[in-house]
Amino acid sequence: MRVLSRQNCLDRICVGLGGRVAEEMVFGENASTTGARSDLTKVTASAARFVRVYGFSKRLSKTDLVQMSDENMNTDIALTNSAIEAILVEQHTRAKSLLTENSALFMRVTQELLEHGESVYRQVCGVAWH
Questions:
Q1: What are phi and psi of 29, to 5 degrees?
Q2: 61-67 contacts, C-beta under 8 A, 24 or more apart
Q3: Global pTM value
Q4: Domain span at residue 56?
């Protein structure tokens, strides 16, 4: 089993939102596409685990759906929805801030993608270091 810190979990959510944020920054919020659907599904599930399973929120009780009625779990998931949304909004803002702080590199990579389509890792690294 791989152990992740609280910050590792938040970093993964932030990275997962990076594609949507990049689209918004390059094309505008109204031109965002459905391309981020899978990423949004994954980061929402990650944020839910962050709050409901790992106990990384203000609420200490583990929230989960149980298989057996004798398991003493907090099964009220509705109470955690606002915490999940807050994490997603916070990490969306963080991703935007990181891309803005590194806008020169971000725009070079963006230009490479717009001109040449899907770039391979080495090409993107070449853009990053020149």
A1: -60, -40
A2: none
A3: 0.81
A4: 6-102
